[in-house]
Amino acid sequence: MDLAELGATGAVQAHREPETEVHILGTLYKIRIIDEDDYRYDREADGWCDTTVKELLLFNYSQSAKSVKDLGEYQKATIRHEIIHAFLYESGLWQNSGSVECWAKNEEMVDWMAIQSPKIHKAFEEAGVSE
């Protein structure tokens, strides 16, 4: 969908630098936006954390009848989710918390952390304990 057409749908298209870097417990990760023609594209996930090459892969969303209205906010939520995966990996919890279905790899647990982290950070700021 052309960006000009988004006005008619009321949708907000994500605008993000194609590559950003973030430090996760001292390890540099690159956030990469990838398109459908990239071999790493996975239609079953909106992004993933590739710990082998220290990349957080995020799919370049496009507006459709099946997509959320605010793609920018959805993209931020997906990046937060993948950052949580990276923190769990870099801390050693990913590898050392049990079986394949261990809590540190559990998608519901990672979603909870990613969704609640902005609220927790805000509460820390309000309490004057963010640093």
**How widely separated are the two ends?**
43 Å
Count of spatially separate domains: 1
For the CA atoms, what is the radius of gyration? 16 Å
Mean pLDDT: 79
How large is the count of helical segments? 3
**Which secondary-structure class do the elements indicate?**
alpha+beta
- Give the assembly state of these chains: single chain
Estimated share of beta-strand residues: 15-25%
Strand order of the largest sheet: 1-2-4-3
Helical content band: 25-40%
Per DSSP E runs of 2 or more residues, the count of β-strands stands at: 4
Shape: globular
Q: Order of SSEs, N→C?
A: HEEEEHH
Largest sheet: 4 strands, mixed
Poorly predicted spans: 1-9
Write up what this structure looks like:
The chain is α+β, with helices and mostly antiparallel strands. The protein has one domain. Helix content is 34%, strand content 18%. It contains three helices and four strands. It has helices at 6-9, 71-90, 107-127; strands at residues 19-24, 27-34, 47-50, 55-59. Strands 1-2-4-3 form a four-stranded mixed beta sheet, covered by helices on one side. Helix 2 packs across helix 3. It starts with 5 loop residues before the first helix and ends with a helix. Residues 1-9 have low confidence and may be disordered.
